[in-house]
Design brief:
Helix content: over 70%
Structural class: mainly alpha
Shape: elongated
Low-confidence stretches: none
Number of helices: 2
Largest sheet: none
């Protein structure tokens, strides 16, 4: 169970970084890509970041020492 949570946290971190990098690269390129996908990248990053934080909190609650 702990390995599953660890894997989920790692995958969610990678997804969050992917959204972040694609949003930053899109902003640097500007023009059409940023107008079309900029807001979508920001929303995706915020959603994936929220999932990541929730998974980390759940991991700490389930497997942390008291």
């Amino acid at each position: 169970m702990q390995a599953l949570f660890t894997g989920l946290v790692i995958v969610s971190l990678i997804v969050t970084v992917g959204f972040l990098l694609s949003g930053v690269i899109g902003m640097l390129q500007g023009a059409d890509f940023n107008k079309k996908y900029g807001n979508l990248m920001m929303r995706g990053r915020v959603a994936s970041q929220a999932v990541t934080v929730l998974l980390i909190v759940a991991y700490a609650l389930l497997f942390g020492t008291s």
